[in-house]
Amino acid sequence: MLGEFLKSRRAGLRPEDVGLRDYGGRRRVPGLRREELAQLAGVSVAYYIRLEQGHADNVSDEILDAIARALRLDPAERDHLHRLAHPRRDRPPEEPVVLRPPLRHLLDAITHAPAYIVGHRTEVVAWNRLTAEVFVDLAAVPPAERTWSHQIHLNLDYRARLGANWPVVARRNAAYLRFRAGEDPGDRRLAALVAELRERSPGFAGLWDEHRVGGLDHGEARIEHPAEGPLVLPFETLHLPGDPQISRLMLYAAEPGSASEAALRRLAATSTRLSSAELAAG
User: Fold this and answer.
1) Does domain 101-281 have CATH number 3.30.450.180?
2) How would you label 153-163 residue by residue, b for 16+ Cβ within 10 Å and e otherwise?
């Protein structure tokens, strides 16, 4: 993955982007040549070629930072480069997901905004009623496909709810999966998810091959609800470091006094969807 990432970022730069003079002539590949990148980073061409071939044994953080600067990487991409060059070797054994009762109680107490708990592979571990009402009725989804990655790339009804914002959400999801693959390259379940999406989704393979990386800390959801129309819902992420198999709690809240807030209140009052706790109770 290291070589593919370096090539993708090198292909996205032109000589003039990094202060080099382009003497014209046809380039066999788009973007900077290896020789130009090595010059910018202050390393030998042979050394850089070895990195693109995936040979990163004993490469120093200083050299990686120099290459990151030469490639104009943002902080998330720079960290991703370091993780690819120095992958973790001590992956802990897989454990079953156990949701602590206080987390379940917190989720159930949120009644006027969508909220859910998600794992490291975008799997939805638990959700409240408004998550099912606003986004996807997860109780009707096969358990193996209760991931946001499945819903974004394979669920046409959810894609319709995302409307014109679907390309943004789809690219953000692919970037997050790349981020996670760099954090835990030995995660076979994550690799299987990516392989499934590449096979089943016409657009996912192209997004994956862009090699974008990014976390998911805050943002804004835009939904075309079939009953309530457009909803604008800013979201925040609460990371849960004390639970190894759980990633974060996602909270959405409409602007006070907005049409979206009024719509959420109406949906909360009339919802017949099931939360994860109600589904588990049978």
Assistant:
1) yes
2) bbbeebeebbe
Give the tens place of pLDDT for each residue, 39-79.
888 999 998 888 888 888 888 999 999 999 999 998 889 98
Owner of token pair 């993955």: 1
Burial of 82 (0-12, 13-18, 19+ CB in 10 A): middle
Residue 238 dihedral angles phi and psi, to the nearest 5°:
-110, 110
Task: Give the CATH number of domain 2-85.
Answer: 1.10.260.40
60 by Cβ neighbours in 10 Å (0-12 / 13-18 / 19+) ranks as exposed
Q: What is the biggest distance separating any 2 CA atoms in the chain, rounded to whole angstroms?
A: 70
Run of H or E residues at 234: strand 229-239
The segment(s) of the chain belonging to CATH 3.30.450.180 are 101-281
Torsions phi, psi for 170 (to 5 deg): -65, -45
Q: Please state the pTM of the whole predicted model.
A: 0.84
Kindly report, residue by residue over 93-106, the tens digit of the pLDDT: 677 777 888 999 99
Tokens of residue 240, six digits: 């849960």
Is pLDDT at 169 greater than 70 in this prediction? yes
Question: Cα–Cα distance between 150 and 274 in angstroms, integer?
Answer: 20
Give the strand order in the sheet containing 229-239. 124-127, 115-118, 248-252, 229-239, 218-225
Residues forming CATH 1.10.260.40 domain(s) in the chain: 2-85
Amino acid at 165: N
Q: Which residue, 146, 141, 149, 136, is CA-closest to 198?
A: 149
